[in-house]
Write a structure and sequence with these properties.
This protein is of the alpha/beta class. It has six helices and nine strands. The chain starts with 7 loop residues before the first strand and ends with a helix.
Length: about 230
């Protein structure tokens, strides 16, 4: 399988706008944005509001795609509320070569296959997510496809040798599948559903208890993951 990205290899924020104080430059990760794409498939992970979709939209604009989703022939379609990306104008992209064709899927506006995907799993069952992975693998094997995907799906994150970038924190960092909260929480609740549900019900019974308060008993690793998910 081709181990290098076919098209976009680097994305850098222009220094002159980093401290503008305007949205989206108030998002911590975006203020220090610098991405080296090292694989044909790159996943953006992190909590809602950390800038994943904002960066995906900017990449779409840099690839001359509509930020509301779709292909180049839909630039005038205005499928969604956004028609431009403020971040795109502040980025310095580096392409190995420009993609001859591209597509941007935004799950809330589109339902098609794409090479730029924002939460594609929202319209797909687990079985269909596996089918998507198989199709992606076949396309990547040709050396002519690159995927950049914002997702919360631990199934999609299993793509072999994919680059996973975490948007949680003040700067982007590369993270392994096993270290993502998506993997840990999903694995934990499937292996120990009773432990998770006991803790969730305790929280429901003590709604006035601060989320950071320590339980009366020592916490298992599964409990700690529930704590993290609740705090997020």
């Amino acid at each position: 399988m081709n181990a290098t990205p076919a098209y976009l290899v680097r994305l850098q924020l222009k220094e002159s706008v980093a401290d503008s104080g305007e949205y989206p430059f108030v998002i911590p990760v975006i203020r220090t944005l610098s991405i080296e794409f090292t694989a044909p498939v790159t996943f953006f992970v992190g909590e809602n509001g950390t800038g994943k979709s904002t960066v995906i939209e900017a990449i779409a604009a840099l690839c001359k795609l509509p930020v509301s989703g779709g292909g180049r022939n839909e630039l005038a379609g205005n499928h969604g509320p956004d028609t431009s990306s403020a971040l795109a104008q502040a980025l310095r992209p580096s392409f190995r070569r420009r993609p001859p064709d591209a597509y941007f899927l935004r799950a809330e506006f589109q339902a098609h296959f794409a090479s730029l995907l924002d939460a594609p799993e929202s319209a797909l069952s687990p079985q269909r997510q596996l089918a998507l992975l198989a199709h992606m693998s076949a396309l990547v094997a040709t050396g002519k496809s690159q995927f950049i995907i914002a997702t919360h799906s631990p199934i999609l994150l299993t793509f072999p040798d994919a680059q996973i970038l975490s948007f949680d924190g003040d700067a982007l960092r590369t993270i392994s599948l096993e270290d993502t909260s998506h993997f840990q929480i999903t694995k934990g609740i499937l292996q120990n559903p009773a432990v998770y549900w006991k803790h969730l019900q305790e929280r429901a019974d003590n709604q006035n208890e601060p989320l950071h308060a320590k339980p009366r008993r020592s916490k298992s690793r599964a409990d700690e993951r529930v704590d993290q998910a609740s705090e997020d």
